[in-house]
Amino acid sequence: MSWLALRLLRPYLITAAALTAAATAYLWYATSTVQDQLDGAGTPNCLDPNVCYPHGAAMDAVLGIELIAAFLPATLGLILGVALFAPEREDDTIAYILTQSVARRRWVLTKLCYAVGAGLTLSLIVAVPFRVVGTRYTVLANDTYEMLQLLHFNSISFMAGQTAALTALGGVLGLAHGRTLRTLALTVVTGPIVVYLGGGLGVLLGAPLVSLAGGFDTTTAPATDFSADISMFDTIGYLMAAGLGLAVLAMGYLATRIRTA
Amino acid sequence: MSDDIPAAVTVEGVSRRFGTTDALRDCTLTIPAGAVVAVLGRNGAGKSTLLRAIVGLLRPDRGRLTVLGQPLNPSILPRIGYVAQQAPLYRNLTVQQTLRLGARLNPRWATDYAEHLVHTATLPTTARVGSLSAGQRTRLALAMALGKRPDLLILDEPLAALDPIARTEVIGTLMAEVADRGVTIVLSAHVVADIQHICDRVVVLAAGGIRLDAETDAAVAEHRIAVGAVRDLAALDGLPVVELRRDGNDFTALVHGTRTRDAGSVAWHSPTLEEVLLGYLRTAKPQPVEEVRVA
């Protein structure tokens, strides 16, 4: 069964992996572009936009990094989630698999787990270098791209959570509707709602615990050092990721309850 | 159905609605074990919905289904073979991979038999399923269903895509399954001629309801056809008229029951199975007596 699940996902996994590889390569290219500009200005370790605000190609590179961090996790979720069950329902091959000697629950959960697992892995492949290397440069243009920052919070866990949630959402919608384009449209429309509702729920549930443990942020950044901006949303990112994890579990349960027509 | 023959499938008061359309309306029927049952109906009559409900692909809104003596549950799936309409199979897999998939997914899988069926159908094992013709895909889907060695075989219009030779071969294979293993077969069809010589029970669906559920011999024996002049339509008064057709000054009526009434030009005769089934297929519900009288 695992073989079939992976075989059916293969073209979409290849697409998502290629996108991830391209995005990761671009991250390295973009960071080196900004670093070259910093080196040229004689401020190689600068973290203060008042001193070394990027311009020209470096500014474009920062925008590229922000766009990747903001939209790639969701795109990976869309690719894997929409492809999970919608095509199978559209061409009715789901009627074949669900009448073999395999419990519906097992088939649905197997595919969902592989897709979510693959999505998490690919998302982490981008999110980790972004956080470890890229955010050091995006902090230089935080004022310009702060709206984009709200889509990823510089948080590895939130970015990975987005991919997982959209993968599960696409799977559930595909299982329920069975039309690939309609599933894509519905996932695009409802995805942000699910991500921010699920994430918000995580914050609401987790905030009291965080407060008990000592508050959200006890550090105060020096006035001339913007490095604290990088980790400013970390706690919120963890809580939102936890909320998205719960949403994925809920959607997994829902997926096992949906009866295909 | 004789009382000592166990039921392979019982459908009790099953209804299913899609939006505002009643796909199935309060359907009740019993399919005896070892029978070959044809489910007939026009497009949208509810045949596929009924078959999908029997194999558990959709859950009825109301009613109860028992399959092979149990309420529907995953443990009976190894005993059910199903071929959906247009025989959907994974297009990217080769025939050989599809056969291996059957072996992976089914504990009772008969590799030799499935390969024999594929060989008989002269399917190229290295070809992708997507490159096969509709008829070849149907043959492969049948091989996949029969490879499970099922006790109950549900086939949704299995003969539609087959050429005459393939049709004969498939019917032969299915009949061998019945004779050798006592498999119960439920198949849907549009074409009466396809099934009239192979099934021993017929179910006619119309607008989601069961119009006829009878053994083939009984279906023929329990109907009469009346032919006569329209002016003698009174001969049908009080009789359960299934279908009434007028052609100029003449009429032809399919009447349920063996009771006949002579009147003027009206002649009665026994119908063929095809005439009975076409009569039911052409009418979604019994002809109102008023209409007969007015005419």
Question: What would you note in describing this structure?
Answer:
The complex is a heterodimer of chains A (261) and B (295). Chain A has 261 residues and is mainly alpha-helical. Chain A has helices at residues 2-40, 49-52, 57-90, 93-97, 104-138, 146-149, 156-177, 180-212, 234-257. Chain A is globular, with a radius of gyration of 20 Å. The two termini of chain A are 22 Å apart. The model of chain A has no long low-confidence stretch (mean pLDDT 89). In chain B, helix 3 packs antiparallel against helix 4. Chain B is an alpha/beta fold. Chain B has nine helices and 14 strands. Chain B has helices at residues 47-54, 95-105, 111-120, 134-147, 164-181, 192-195, 216-221, 273-282, 289-294; strands at residues 7-18, 21-32, 36-41, 62-67, 70-71, 80-83, 152-156, 184-189, 201-206, 209-215, 223-229, 241-247, 250-256, 267-269. The longest helix of chain B has 18 residues, at 164-181. The model of chain B is unreliable at 289-295 (pLDDT under 50). A six-stranded mixed sheet of chain B has the order 6-7-8-3-9-10, sandwiched between helices. A four-stranded antiparallel sheet of chain B has the order 2-1-4-5, covered by helices on one side. Chain A binds chain B through residues 1, 3-4, 7-8, 91-93, 95-105, 259-261, and chain B through 18, 52, 55-59, 74, 77-78, 80-82, 84-86, 88-93, 101-102, 104-108, 141, 144, 148.
Number of helices of chain A: 9
**Separation of the first and last Cα atoms of chain B:** 38 Å
Any idea what the shape of chain B is?
A: elongated
Largest interface: A-B, 22 and 32 residues
Span between termini of chain A: 22 Å
Order of helices and strands of chain B: EEEHEEEHHHEHEHEEHEEEEHH
Biggest sheet architecture of chain A: none
Low-pLDDT windows of residues of chain B = 289-295
Query: In order across it, which strands form the biggest sheet of chain B?
Result: 6-7-8-3-9-10
Which residues of chain A form runs of ≥5 with pLDDT under 50?
A: none
Q: Helical residue percent of chain B?
A: 25-40%
As a percent range, the share of strand residues of chain A is under 5%
